[in-house]
Amino acid sequence: MAAYQIGEVERLLGVKAHVLRFWEKEFPLLQPRKDGYGRREYSGRDLRLLLRLRYLLHVRRFTIEGARSQVERELSGSDQNSSALIDSIRAELVGVFFIARRSRTQALKALGESEEQEDVL
Fold it and tell me: How many Cα neighbours within 13 Å face the side chain of 97?
């Protein structure tokens, strides 16, 4: 099982650590484990939930309460609009792909390599 430290999650999502800790308080479904030193360990499930929360709060501009209700509906299976949900998740994934590609391009430029030499995406 993959475990992500809060700093890794912060970089992956582009959300500051204090925001992640706030979301833990506001969304009872989000409960990362803590290791023996008290450091948070986010699971893959936690990461998926955080991605969804970021989408709802930052892109769709839901309120905290609205996002909480939406996530609860989605997880309970009472959300009848699964096609729209799939479309929104797909849009989020495409966005993440382009962010990763841009980061990769910037890293290659910093290393002095051209994209043509190393283009695997």
Answer: 7
